[in-house]
Amino acid sequence: MRNVVRNLLLALALMAFSPVAFAKETLQQRIDALLVGSELYLPEGEGPFPVVIQLHGCGGKKNLQARWAAVAKSAGWAVIVVDSYGHRRIDRLEAYATVCTGLQLWGRERAGDLFAMMEWARGESWADPNRIAVAGWSHGGWTALDALSMTPGKQVTTATRLDDLPEEPLAGLVGAFVIYPYQWIGALAPSRGLRVDVDVHAIVGTADTVVGGKYLANVLGRMTKPGAAINVTVFEGATHAFDEIEAQDWRIRYDPVLTERAHRMYANFLMAAAAKPSAR
Predict the structure, then answer these.
(1) Collapsing DSSP states into helix, strand and coil, what is residue 235?
(2) How do the domains of the chain map onto residue ranges?
(3) pLDDT tens figures, 52-99
(4) What is the pLDDT of residues 166-195, one digit of tens each?
(5) 48 preceded by cis ω (within 30°)?
(6) DSSP H or E stretch at residue 146
(7) How far is CA 181 from CA 58, 161, 189, 215, 268, in A?
(8) Level-2 CATH architecture, domain 2-274
(9) How far apart are CA 207 and CA 252, in angstroms?
């Protein structure tokens, strides 16, 4: 309870600040910038392949993303592991000091990275433009859910600082998989709900003192969306970033058993998503 109160007080303190906004870019500028530091994994075969876009947590792109990408690749999916920090010149230290504390790059702004990578993937010969999913960890989960909650047009343009997005930036989306997503102050999805009818699966740990544990499970369980509710799986005893072998944060405890379980869930989610029609 003490940790939850502490996190709430921190979130309330952040309300006194407006997050620092980055300069406006065209969609193509954002695509070109993101491609420099992002990684592409392609499965065996000719394609076109369904595509999953992986969004890292607030600490930046780490080794765990490659391990999750291997799971998706084995399931027959192409994987784009996005680096949201390289072109913004945010190093690891700045990320922990400013992004993880909410001083810059909120989920709604970073949603432009997802829209940009979806637009790029839709134009590639190896990609199936009607089979695109998003996976997000912590801040990346916040980004994914905000992206699914915003209305195309002025709201999206203002939030992402991209003024030439397609009429439907989520065209081809078939699902979202979020792992311990942040959903406190600044997140849009808890109050607005999700606007697209795609399957959304979430993993939440009961010992997660970073994003709220059981509180987060309740928020996700009540979140409105077209069609079925979010599928929330609660991992008893799991901390934040339970899947990060290299973590050095005292709040995090790596759990190989739960990580393997989460990987299986990811593979099953993607295989099921590949068989369903896209929402747009």
Answers:
(1) strand
(2) 2-274
(3) 999 999 999 999 999 999 999 999 999 999 999 999 999 999 999 999
(4) 999 999 999 999 999 999 999 999 999 999
(5) yes
(6) helix 139-149
(7) 11, 23, 11, 12, 20
(8) 3-Layer(aba) Sandwich (3.40)
(9) 9
